[in-house]
Write a structure and sequence with these properties.
Two copies of one chain form a homodimer. With 271 residues, chain A is of the alpha+beta class. Chain A contains nine helices and ten strands. Chains A and B meet through strand 5, helix 4 and helix 6 of A and strand 5, helix 4 and helix 6 of B. Chain A binds a DNA duplex (30 and 30 nucleotides) through helix 7.
Chain lengths: 271, 271
DNA sequence: CGCCTACTTGAATTCATTCAAACGCCGTGG
DNA sequence: CCACGGCGTTTGAATGAATTCAAGTAGGCG
């Protein structure tokens, strides 16, 4: 029953569709006016490309602008003195590369591409302008960064308390929901262009062990993989294996109270 | 040479002293006017107490206000279905309990006390007011939350890529610097009221293994412990063991560019 | 004094790593 | 067309770091 739906599906919560993945994601937080959506589209219009396996920004550098990832996959990672590497998070379409820009002197980690990517550079000025003039978008971006923080905490839980199977299962579930939130799933299928080495570097495991876990999952018909497309054949059991609960992604939006507050700000500006 | 300096020492960077630990911390980011400092002192004035080992907020709850921790130690943690527990971060004086309040519907983790604590509750309103009227403080708080995020990423690196010794050493170094930043160290000595079980729940290790690592550190004269006071006798070697580099704490403040920007906002408001 | 919690230590076990080798796929170039 | 590498994956066997189980010690407190 899970194999392949024919159409892209909407995130299960409530959110309308949107061509812009960032818009799709932010709609999980709160509704946005047409004007807000247009603003986001303008923001996403500029385009720059990077090939696979290059750094967009490296540790120690001072980033000059934020990047909105429009297509492809990237990662935040850090190289270890002993030659190892730890991948902290994956960036998928709709994710912003670095809000840190504004406040921190230099990057404490690197951002590198996994596949070729298309990004929209966003200057400091236009972001500041956005903060000043679009309270609802600003709030949604803030929410989005809270969500990212929550994902970091969950990763800590994974690495600290789950065994290899649980870690892999958890990551797969998280990526499924994240892709759903930006409209990039097809049933339980999504693009996963990661090597087993990269999975290992993410989950604190060796590539060979990742291999064994994936093999087991395939044999138990929990997943199937074909030319970088990952299908979760039994999400129920994967979630159970991982102790996964999607609440931490906060896809349900915010409270009416908060919405009202930002509507108030919005109204204020109009005058 | 490391055992016990006679006075509280200042964080090595540049920051002036301050009775208020939050102020001390924020001064690492940028200078604050007397008026700003007074504002922070007013915020920190209200007082509420919690005993040790209770939840200030539990997973699933909707927090009603932010808490500024003034004294004692607390933790963000999450209980696992199998009875286990993962501690995500420790909260020390100067830390704010939950900025998430405003945007997320409910807590995805709990905050519990470790020791008895004194906190200053801060209402949503006074925080919103602060954001509107105190750009420099707001920026500093934002910086502080970037710092927290960086610490989460570092924890991921620890759990993913460091062995037990490295993890313990890393945590000790981090806590030393964090305590320094709020003026709560005495040379290389600081209060560490954690049980070995709590350390284990933080670092993804069993208490017995924590015990063995600490024993080794004591035997190698890297640390000494006495009635909950932790002395790092050989910070150099601990940092080497952990591959520790304090840059991720961003204690060096921000760029002049950013400072100028917020000074501009400040000036704007004055009119 | 007795109890509870935290700490300590030893021995057996296990999950994941390390080392090693082979396989398949794919693009390049002879 | 096939040979050649390179990279990612797959599999086996030996090793090892940390866990589990178990039992004993030490310290704080009613």
């Amino acid at each position: 029953m899970a194999c392949a739906a024919e159409h892209r599906d909407q995130p299960s919560a409530t959110p309308p569709p949107a061509g812009n993945p960032l818009t799709s994601k932010l709609l999980h937080f709160a509704p946005l006016s047409n004007s807000d959506r247009q603003h986001l589209d303008r923001l996403a219009a500029p385009e720059e490309r990077f090939p696979a396996s290059v750094d967009i920004i490296a540790e120690g550098m001072v980033p000059r602008s934020v990047f909105l990832l429009k297509e492809g996959m990237a990662m935040r990672y850090r190289n270890m003195p002993d030659g190892g590497r730890q991948i902290m998070t994956f960036l998928i379409p709709g994710d912003l590369c670095d809000m840190h820009v504004f406040l921190l002197k230099e990057m404490d980690h690197s951002i590198g591409t996994i596949t070729p990517v298309r990004v929209a550079p966003i200057s400091r000025e236009s972001l500041m302008d956005l903060f000043a003039s679009r309270p609802r978008i600003s709030a949604a971006l803030w929410w989005s960064s809270m969500q990212e923080e929550a994902m970091l905490r969950e990763r800590i839980v994974s690495l600290g308390r789950r065994d290899a199977r649980g870690r892999v299962a958890y990551l797969l579930c998280e990526l499924l929901w994240r892709h759903r939130a930006v409209g990039l799933t097809n049933g339980e299928v999504f693009r996963l262009p990661l090597t087993q080495t990269e999975l290992g570097d993410t989950l604190g495991l060796t590539p060979v062990h990742i291999n064994r876990v994936l093999k087991e999952f395939r044999q138990r018909s929990l997943i199937s993989m074909d030319r970088r497309m990952m299908s979760l054949l039994n999400v129920e059991e994967l979630q159970a294996l991982a102790g996964f609960n999607k609440d931490y992604l906060h896809l349900g939006g915010t409270s009416p109270e908060v919405t009202r507050y930002f509507d108030g700000l919005e109204a204020n500006l109009k005058r």
